Amino acid sequence: MACRTGTVTCGERRSPRARRAGEYARLQPAEAGFQKGVGGDVREVLEAALARHSTLSEGDWLDAQHGGRAYALRVQKLRPAAAVSVIGAPSTGRLYRSCRRSSHRS
Asked: What is the pTM of this model?
């Protein structure tokens, strides 16, 4: 059995598309029940999901965790650009209806 060793080179590469700080994000849950599932903790849940990212692009999916459950959220619209930096960016947002409606009626 042969064993090879080598050198790994790491570097930083910046995306030219995400230079601007995000100011606004419109998100859409993949499933009905996101807002009901997280209750009054919507802002905290979304902030925690965003904290795991340094940049966002329109069309990206975020994974929001709450109460042992994962919720997928699609990034529909960003301002001021279609790709933004979210590091230290004070932003506002809007949460839209889910992509799929719940299979049960209340």
From this structure: 0.70
